[in-house]
Amino acid sequence: MKKNLSNTSAALMAVSGVLLVVSIFLPWWGMKFYAPQYQEGLDIIVYPTTLDGDIDIVNGLNHYIGMAEFSNASFPELVFMPYIIGGFAVLVLIGAVLRNKKVLTGLIGLYVALGALGIWDMYRWLKTFGTDLDPKAPIELEPFVPPLIGENTIANFVTNSAFSYGAYLLAVVFLLLVIPLWKDRKL
Amino acid sequence: MNMQRILYGVVGVLTGLLVSIVFFADFNQANAGDAAANKSKAEKVYVPYGEQDEYYMFASGGHSGQLFVYGVPSMRKIRTVPVFTPDPATGYGFDDKTKEMLGGYSWGDFHHPAVSETGGDYDGEFLFANDVGNNRVAAVDLSTFHTSDIMSLPNMGGPHAGVFVTENTEYIAMPTRFARPLAGEYAELDKYEEDYKGVVSMTTFDRKSKKFDLAYQIVLPPWSYDLSDAGKKMSKDWIVMTTYNTEFATTNLEINASQNDRDYIVMINWKRLEDEVANGNYNDVNGAKMIDPRDVPGAIFAIPVAKSPHGVDVTPDGERFIASGKLAPLMTVFSFEKAFEAIKSKDFKGEEFDIPVLPYEKVVEREVDPEGALGPLHTQFDDKGHAYNTMFISSEIVKWKVDSGEVIDRKPTYYSPGHASAAEGDTIEPDGKYIVALNKIAKDNFLSVGPSHPESMDLFDISGDKMEHLITAPTDPEPHYAQIVHRDKIKPKKIYDKDESRENSVWSQDDARIERKGDEVHVYGIAMRSKFVFDAKAERPDAVTVKQGDTVYFHMTNIDLDQDITHGFGINDYDLNFEIQPGQTNTLTFKADKAGTFPIYCTNFCSALHQEMSGYLLVEPK
Predict the structure, then answer these.
(1) A1 domain residue, yes or no
(2) b/e B552-567 (16+ beta carbons within 10 angstroms → b)
């Protein structure tokens, strides 16, 4: 196979592989809830492996509007996510050894596809939780879809959703994978 | 030409300087210190929303039996913490643990709080208190502000002269006020001198198990022990106590205990007594290890002091102790060093009740007698070598220099202060910022509430040379003494820890269950916003059916691990109510002796659907 990527490019790919592994241990996404009684905010923090933050309190409050309880058990993704990320990191490291543009292009394509799938999956969950409300709940709300990014108001709560450090690393990984293609375009 | 250039240069630089000064200099900075001093009284006590007071003030609630917590300088009351008396608002004395701790008592007389100390300074972990009414000592855990232990003490007769703690809280000491035959047995008042005793209880407190132990008791002559303090640093092994009624009056003490020109300060070396007790030199008296200090050479001495003294307070450096005269209107400064010298050279002026008496003039350093200042009761300290004395009769605080006796300032209080409490004012490191006079009389300082009056408290800023009166605040009866502790030293929990191994706790509503053992019904239930679950599998999880005559145990856990989400639990017509804090497990036990249908409901407003948080207790008739 033709080795048409420079040493620098191979190094960048190796770094991106390592960053991918690092991202497994960082939060990817979070939602912060503010209310008059919760000036300090309540957190839902999503790691690729687990949920963190004030999950019990948020669940306790959500039952008033009939939202299903969420926990690690309700998201099977949390079990296999680390393997997918780890596996992709291994592929990137292999790509760094092969130093082949076609392989790299393929990897970038796969990365974008996985990313799109991930975002679709998150949207799907947000929609499920926001619209599949228990009709017997004491407080009746119009079904809603909490935004993936940005502010939303539900009753006395204002929520702020945003990607977090792990997701920023994923963006860096994407750049580190694209730079070699551009840098070595004449090789 | 050259000159001109230089001149332009100089002018240019000066212009630049001028411009920079105009635009960037902060002329206010030079006055920043003055600005603080120039704050109005209102600004000094105003704590805007979003900010908090700098100090906690833990004030005794007197014969309410409770602890009052205030913020200083706002003087806002933050909380009543029940200690010696049941409190339906918090379920204190209703649930099994606090009911057992109270032991059936319905009141207490909380006098002198003492915050636990390490190295002579508040460590902020626990607060101890004496019950003069029923001879008890209590500890409040300052991580939860809940009373963690109460101990009844045998052989006591109203332990007014405590509590005080030794330098590292080795002991929480309580000397008795009324002489009484040991164990409170019957003995005629004619046999006062022979059969009546004064007793000091030396209790220890285990911070891990949060329990008291009575290490030993000291038996003393039947004088009245009024107030006391522990030594610090060079005097750390000693305790000093004031006495009155060395006349042994047994009736109309007002007159008959005020006859002698001199009473005594008693000095006791607790370290020596501790060693003797460890060696087995004590008698078992009603479950207490009783030691007579007169049997231990060097353990007890008496110093004559002006008539019926009240407070005695050790200076922050531990080198002196100051007695307040009450009936002889002067403060007497004694020197530990001089006392130690007199003891060493056996320079005694005879004995009283077999206690060696140190000559007054050999131990006294000075008498301080500000003109017209009457009824000195207690002394507090600042960080600059000043003492602050409350004057009950002339209703004022007198600030004076400990080293010279020079009077610096006098300010009226409204009216008749008992104790005062300065910010960290009885530690080795007083803060010197505030003092609060705890007054006994309020008259018409506040909106009238009829013949029943509140007490009053005066807050003074003592950071300057002269004291500045800032505000007067009302308080319920009755603050005897207080501890003002910097907020950084208190580290309260927001919720109870989720301890899944805790006895009787249930952490998931699915695990709630009812178990019958003979005629005992144990409910292992949960409280959460906004429901009770007693039996997860029942058709109605919030109903409990028992038979008349059953003993019912409600083991309830509040599984809302969220700040300030407290659930109450009241049972209609059964005269029962208790409370479960977030993460807490509490048990309520009672005999279901009344047949019928009794609503159960959450008594502490918890959530939007608090009103719906209810259930039923159904008691089937026999």
Answers:
(1) no
(2) bbbbbbbbbbbeebbb
Q: What is the per-residue pLDDT for B18?
A: 59
In-domain check, residue A150: no
Is the Cβ pair A138, B609 closer than 8 Å?
yes
Question: Looking at the 3D structure of chain A, how many domains does it have?
Answer: 1
CA nearest to B529 within chain A: A60
| B358 burial via Cβ count (<10 Å: 0-12, 13-18, 19+) | buried
Domain span at residue A177 reads 7-28+47-145+165-183
| Cβ count within 10 A of residue B11 | 10
B580 in any annotated domain: yes
In this model, does residue B19 exceed pLDDT 90? no
Residue A87 domain-assigned? Answer: yes
Q: Do B609 and A57 touch (CB under 8 A)?
A: no
Work out the angle at residue B597's Cα, subtended by the Cα atoms of residues B592 and B600, and round it to the nearest 5 degrees.
Answer: 80
Q: Which pLDDT tens digit goes with each residue over B577-590? A: 999 999 999 999 99
Task: Report the domain count for chain B.
Answer: 2
Subunit contact B560:A138, Cβ cutoff 8 A = no
User: Does residue B478 share a domain with residue B574?
Assistant: no
Within this chain, do residues B460 and B539 fall inside the same structural domain, yes or no? no
H-state helical runs in A99-152: 101-131
Q: A88 and A110 in contact (C-beta within 8 Å)? A: yes
Burial class of residue A40 (count of CB atoms within 10 Å of its CB; 0-12, 13-18, 19+): exposed
Same domain, B581 and B468: no
Do residues B64 and B210 both lie within one domain? yes
Q: Residue A61: list chain B partners with CB under 8 A.
A: 529
Same structural domain, B539 and B607: yes
* Domain that includes residue B339, residue range: 55-489
CA–CA gap between residue B88 and residue B95 (Å, rounded): 10
ipTM above 0.95, yes or no: no
Is residue A133 assigned to a domain? yes
* % of residues, chain A, pLDDT over 70: 100
Angle at B415 between CA B122 and CA B76, to 5 degrees: 50
Rounded to an integer, the average pLDDT of B196-206 is 97
- Domain membership of residue B12 (yes or no) is no
Which of B562, B565, B607 should we substitute to test contact with A (largest number of A Cβ atoms within 10 Å)? B562
pLDDT at A186: 80
CA-based end-to-end distance of chain B: 123
> Are B411 and B549 in a shared domain?
no
B231 shares a domain with B124: yes
Give the single-character DSSP code of B379.
E
Compute the C-alpha angle B107/B112/B114, nearest 5°: 120
| Contact: A64, B608; criterion CB under 8 Å | yes
Assess if residue B25 is contained within a domain.
Answer: no
- Which pLDDT score, from 0 to 100, does residue B32 have? 46
